[in-house]
Amino acid sequence: MKVGKLNWDDLKKIIDNSRKVKRDEVRIRSGVGEDCSVVEFGNYECILSTDPITGADVNAGKLAVHINCNDIASCGVEPIGILVTILAPESTSLNEIEKVMEEIGEETQRLNVEILGGHTEVTRAVNKMVISCTVIGKALKGRSVATSGAKDGDDIIVTKQLCLEGTSIAANDYNDKIKDVLTLEEIEEAKSYAKYLSVVKEGVIAGKFGVNSMHDITEGGVLGALWEVAEASGLGFKVYKEKMPISNITQRICDKYSIDPLRFISSGSMLITSDKGNELIKILEKEGIKATIIGKIIKGKGILIDENIEREVDPPERDELFVLEEKIQ
Question: Which of 80, 109, 250, 277 would you call most buried, defined as having the most Cβ atoms within 10 angstroms of its Cβ?
């Protein structure tokens, strides 16, 4: 099998076949495109999500916190606590584990998220360190936003720039290899993208504003996230390549290694659908968060328009980060 997420059909089949119980307390169930589950507890509901870090070496602890807290933020709520599991190969030093936990501690402090527990183990089952986290959040009953809530005619909004995570991984993990693509100053700027991976602020703002759907843009890039939102909502989309906010630095890395920035891992950017896109953008920008309308939710298929040519968007496959790793080594 290829490295990366399972394809949509295989994953959906496995999820459907393994889900033997459906509890009445579960208001929103996780699934393909729906990263969080929401469980009702009286007047409140608990939001839960889990994800591992496998594709990065530098900043792995930082990334582990943000990709999980971002899932909770995509429900429009603030994350409260995190559980951390670290599986390390025999070659790992205690200092390396301490460094990862130091990163996790620093990022959770910034987000006001408590480390609730976890598990740390050295094992022959892995050949590099794997960090898997579970995050929980809390909201009033019925307030959490679902990925599946997109409506026909909604504006599609993305925050900040796309590919922040992918670009920062490329600059940090392959510093020496991209010196023929970027200047030293540009490499440092690309590394600094790791500072902007959280979408908790915009998620909470959008949740209070009252949006129809949200999804943090991770593995599979913006096209993968769009496809998952549309599939979960039973709708399609029409987006424009020229409207995608991609930095010059990111574009040059993608051009050099012939990878698609629209399918490049993009933690740090939230995908939002709302029938009041321009109004939401003004609110976000007042809070210092850049936001861009890239298209509309529509009935039918997912369509990308590139130089007036329409093409249907396929289900997400493995992220371009894994393609970059193969080409750059």
Answer: 250
Residue 313 one-letter amino acid:
V
* Residue 86 in this model has a pLDDT that exceeds 90: yes
Across the range 148-167, mean pLDDT stands at 97
Spatial distance between the Cα atoms of 201 and 206, rounded to a whole number of angstroms: 9
Amino acid at the residue 243: K
pLDDT for 322 = 85
What DSSP string describes 211-224?
-SEEEE--TTHHHH
Written as six digits, the tokens of 160 are 């900040």
Residue matched to tokens 């295989």 = 10
- Quote the CA–CA distance of 111 and 273 in Å, as a whole number: 24
Tokens (6 digits) for 80 = 């409260």
Among the listed residues 25, 26, 44, the one whose alpha carbon sits nearest the alpha carbon of residue 34:
26
| CA gap 190, 277 in Å, rounded | 29
- What span, in angstroms and rounded, lies between the C-alpha atoms of 148 and 272? 11
Phi and psi dihedrals of 325, rounded to 5? Answer: -60, -40
Start and end residues for every CATH 3.90.650.10 domain found in the chain: 147-328
Separation of first and last alpha carbons in the chain: 20
Cβ-count burial 273-294 (b if 16+ within 10 Å, e if not): bbeebeebbebbeeeebebbbb
Residue-wise pLDDT tens digits, 255-275: 999 999 999 999 999 999 999
| Half-sphere exposure for 52 (CA within 13 Å, toward CB) | 12
CATH superfamily of 8-140: PurM-like, N-terminal domain (3.30.1330.10)
Tokens of 213: 């759907």
Helix (H, G, I), strand (E, B) or coil at 171: helix
Cβ neighbours around 306 below 10 Å, total = 12
d(CA 195, CA 183) in angstroms, rounded, equals 20
